[in-house]
Design a protein that fits this description.
With about 180 residues, this protein is mostly helical. Helix content is about 90%, strand content about 0%. It contains 7 helices and no strands.
Length: about 180
């Protein structure tokens, strides 16, 4: 359903563009509106197919693993960085943030919709609130390091760790509740 959706989307866009370009002063609405309806139908088909894919059992199970693993690695990496932070200069802190966290933060963010599908919107809000705050603090570590503000960067390493630990605790809590409910 995705490929036909994309084809309709492209056909609608190109058709609407063609009709709109025929006369710069006046748009032939009788031809333009059907083209836009075709494009909107294509967009609807694509979104519906993506929605179905994101809720497939396989994707949900795979994403659940990614969520726990990624968040666990971020917390472990931040704990290590928190212990080492006083021995690192700004350039070293900057490279450590890039090297240790980028892939896991991206993987978690890509799988985040699974939180709402599997555990509900309240759990999603609690976990993502802590995650987003931790990510902002980690970005602040990077930014302060890049600007040479080592003490600020070190302070925000600890703050980021607290937020990511909170997100992990929420995730483990909802996982435990879900396992108890299914048992």
């Amino acid at each position: 359903m995705k490929v036909p959706g994309y084809l309709l989307l492209v056909a609608g866009f190109l058709g609407g563009s063609f009709v709109a370009s025929l006369d710069p002063q006046d748009v032939n609405w009788a031809a333009f509106l059907p083209a836009m309806i075709i494009g909107a139908a294509g967009l609807w088909m694509v979104k519906r197919a993506e929605h179905a894919e994101s809720r497939s059992e396989e994707v949900l199970k795979e994403n659940q693993v990614h969520l726990g693993d990624s968040l666990g690695r971020v917390v472990t990496g931040l704990r290590d960085l928190d212990k080492e932070k006083n021995d690192l200069g700004p350039e070293a802190l900057l490279s450590e943030v890039d090297a240790r966290f980028r892939a896991d933060l991206h993987r978690f963010a890509e799988a985040r919709e699974t939180l709402a599908h599997v555990y509900g919107l309240q759990a999603y809000a609690e976990i993502m609130s802590a995650f987003a705050t931790g990510e902002r603090y980690l970005n602040r570590v990077w930014s302060a390091s890049a600007d040479g503000y080592v003490e600020e960067a070190r302070t925000y390493v600890t703050k980021a760790l607290e937020q990511f630990e909170d997100a992990l605790a929420h995730l483990e809590s909802v996982r435990g509740s879900a396992e108890q409910a299914s048992a």
